[in-house]
Predict the 3D structure of the following.
Amino acid sequence: MGESDRAIIALQKLFSIPYEGALATSAPVTPALLRLDPMFDPLRNDPRFQKLASETEPKGKQ
């Protein structure tokens, strides 16, 4: 939607929240999801997005 700065900030915040496993009500945002979901295509050239998508596991995952 043309607001890549806000989108990156929101993704960084989501990555900082621990995922609660199988009992969670929604699926987590993961680096794999960022790499595969076409919804994120507009952000792919942003170096901050590339860094998030290249992480091996979201922060907070145990």
In short: Residues 1-18+29-62 form one domain. The first helix runs from residue 4 to 16. Helices lie at 4-16, 31-36, 47-54. The chain has three helices and no strands.
